[in-house]
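Notebook B, p. 112. Complex prediction, attempt 2.
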Amino acid sequence: MDKILRVDMGAEGGPTFRVEPVGEFAGLGGRAMTTAIISREVHPLCHPLGAENKLVIAPGSLSGTAASMSGRISVGCKSPLTGGIKESNAGGQAAQVLARLGYAAIVLEGKPESDDLYKIFINKDGVEVSVDNSLKNLPNYPLVEKLKGQYSDRAAYMTIGTAGEMKLLAASIACTDPEKRPTRHCGRGGTGAVMGAKRVKAIILDDTGLKMRPPKDPEKFRDANRRFVEGLRKHPITGEGLPAYGTNVLTNVLNEAGAYPTNNFRTGRFENAAKISGEVQAELEVKRGGIATHGCHRGCVIQCSVVYVDKDGKYVTKQPEYETVWAHGGNCGIDDLDVIARLDFLDDNFGVDTMDTGAAVGVAMEAGLIPFGDGAGAIRLVEEIGKGTPLGRILGCGAEVTGKVFGVERVPVVKGQAMAAYDPRSVMGIGVTYATTTQGADHTAGYSVGPNVLKSGGDLDPLKPEGQVEMSRNLQIATAAVDSTGMCLFIAFPLLDQPETFQALLDMIGAFHGITLTGDDVTALGKSILKMERDFNTRAGFTKHHDRLPRFFLKEPIPPHNVTFQVTDEDLDKVFNW
Amino acid sequence: MRVTVKLFATFRKGRFDTEVREVPPGTTVSNVVDGMRLPGSVGIIFVNSRHAVPSHELSDGDTLAIFPFVGGG
């Protein structure tokens, strides 16, 4: 990964590209790369959908190697949803393929004057940027179906659906899985809208004829990878829970904890949660003959994904993740897994974030457009997004826009981005992360749910503010570093609980680059990323007053614990004091 | 006294989802767990939706929820 591809979509006479040496960005991967380029090169006051914004796509620093779990790809830009810096990452095949092609980043710059739609093809022989207006208005599934006949079987696809073309604020970028289904999304923050603004419909990556990236010290690398995989396999979360039940194993846990946001964050318990739980989902999938364990990218040993089929055994979607099951399920009072799976498919097909879309539907229910629990109504609403009707465009711009248009006060967002499946009143640690992360409400930015609820990586009382600031700080630093390696964030469970697995990862990175890496180096990397992101957001106009939860979380106690969010503003302002 | 015991994930296999049990006063979470020969360690314990430790003494009418270590997100 010694080069960067820059495509100027706004060049006179049509897009041009140049391949540059990686230069000052050498050694960076994933979020470290996207953040470094955006913070240095994008004007913080630019319009996110304008020519001044850039879309940076970067494989992790270990992607394309034999390292297990290294298939995350990061996409960065100034977010049209939050107005701040954005890094959104996804699994699928793209990271491994792009890394083997030798690109540390693709940077899409400028925007075309014309209405033409482009595709970008990259293989070992070079880069081709071409007009393909036959792709206009295609949702992700038919789009990939049409493209895959034209390219090698090894190709991976990064695409936008109709939502991205319409530049909706919750639009995602889809990455294909090993079966070439557009199921893994850089979902958060509207990165798909930025790709749409640049009129790029598809990026096709083909690594035919290329090999895995070789480590500097192959023997040490192999040994470290073996110890790393052993650690993942022996940890109960990555070795048992996730492969058996997928991420939706959390529904019952959060519901039992009284922290499962129900009916647009009115209560912390959903009476029908059991019906949409991971346990019931897994049973149903096995009964119907779906594929019970599946990796979203080659080289994954956790295999938390599944193929979800209908009662006739016909493909519906990939197994909806916990956050999706919640956003379209309990958050909307919906208790039917088939309805949720259909909504997951629609989101993937149109290319929108499942969390912001589910939260928008919840807000629409709060506004009285349809009642809570109305599954058929929720499907109709999400179909409006695909049709591009005025209502669909509002919903496809996420919960905040929907709340503003329909006059709703209870809108669960920070910096314009919807919260995930944990109420910040009854899991105060995640409230600190939602409030303070540079990304807008984002549970993955510092997953305090681990020590608060799951008792992994520490033990804090979720109903008390004590210790939450320090925990969120440490997790935000560690996460920024992990997001730069291309590693799936689920490795954090064994990493935090098993020092020898953390050491194995350090050894593996070290052996790849032929250096010795320590925990302090990882911390320093994480801090440097957060510092760049905070600095960008400050220059974009963000102040400490944006690091706050909506006031209703401080005023309305949530049952069953009847608590409000109790971390003080003064303490929230200490998260980035290190 | 009566307590409701709920099991989740792998702990359900060959056992039950929910069971109401008659237990003597002074029964702790450990007493209940030990009698079930669960596969693997107990990860998360809730008594009436609050985290509890194995030595927690149950009261009449309590709901005890027992999970292995699970995660996602």
